[in-house]
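User: structure tokens for this one?
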Amino acid sequence: MDAELTARHARVREALERDGLDAVLVCGSEYTGFEGAVTYLSGFQIVHRYAYVLLPREGDAAIVFPAEARYVGEHGDSQIAEQVFADRPGEWLADRLRGKRVGTYGLDYVMTVRDHTALAGAAEIVPWDEQFDLVRAVKSDAELASVRESVEINTAGFHAFREVWAPGRNAAEVLAPAEKLFVERGCGRLTMNMVLVGAEFAIAREDTIFGEFTIPSLEIAGPGGHWVEVSRALGTPSDEVQRMLEAYEEYYEVAQTALHAGATAHDVHRAVSKGFTERGYHLGHVTGHSIGMTMIEHPRIGEAVETELAANMVFSMHPHAISADGRECLYMQDTWLVTEDGGVPLAGLEMRIW
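Assistant:
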């Protein structure tokens, strides 16, 4: 294994020791945004079905695939030597983990029912999502380089979208140049890009015709596998949305001091959402969340989340302002780096409606 992956394993094992666990079982699936924990511990990227990484507190790691789908990705990309193709992965894991206390990432959303059924009677399964996310929340220098590359690609994609956008054009043809750029720059399948249609986000389609105002949501992971989110609204806003922009401008300034090491996620949420709530807007989607090789990680920036931030954490920030009558909203995304002194918006993209 390379030095970066070895260091990741060491940090996770320290947390296992702290929490009295014998191993961690990381679950990943091809569902966009849920494959990254496997990549984080192995270097392998899932393109079909699902996979598990088993990292014991002592001993060698293993990566486990369901045998009914012999190809689930480029297996040679895995830096874990033991690659297992099991007819029933849960039964193989049960044999390996019998009597052990196992922290499990993805227990509620990712692990298959058949594997849980086989494993539950053999080992003590301990939910370990938040603990695993906190281990990987502080990014290494190599990871930050990957994050910055993803941000640069995502920002270029926004400009590709912006340059062809116009009222009357359909969403598919406008998003196509951005998606082409993303694939050419090494994102592969790791893109999840949408546009706001009425009150909901939707995949871009030919029958979605843009009006005078558009909100894209652009979310990608570059060649290093780190997800980022960067986008701005386009067009002519209503008077109500123009007022929302004033709150966005306030948030953008406040975050540059609020997102500092030692602040809690709750405190940051209160600081950056103040301009929206004081104007009477409802908050829709979460204010922000840690982001890495999985699209949404813990901690989120929200009410009553007392997790303390540390330098080199990375957050996607996207306050979602909704008018009192629920008919208008504004939603724009940025990827931020936490430092000792405050937050740094990595895209450097002017906060305005373009």
